[in-house]
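Issue 218. Parser rejects a valid record. Input:
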Amino acid sequence: WDPEKDSSGSLLEESSFATLFPKYRESYLRQIWPIVTKALKKHGVACELNLIEGSMTVRTTLKTSDPYIIVKSRDLIKLLARSIPVAQALKILDDGMYCDIIK
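Output the parser choked on:
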């Protein structure tokens, strides 16, 4: 997706995804959350770490222009919840990268 070619503006509706994470991931997620927030902010996606509920949430904002980035953001928080290191998980935000979680 190229923002130069498709500058139609922001999305019409807000979308959000949340995922739960295990208690043992809490300290790691708290450490790396500023990195995640910074990476998602570049794409116009807001994120929230809720330590009380044990959940991570991503949602579109008025600055979100790429319609598929919310799906990639959802995949990012799923990977982080499944103990993938942040450096590897952030690669999912690239256009040519995809993931599949096998249960």
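Fixed in the parser; the record now loads. DSSP finds three helices and three strands in the chain.
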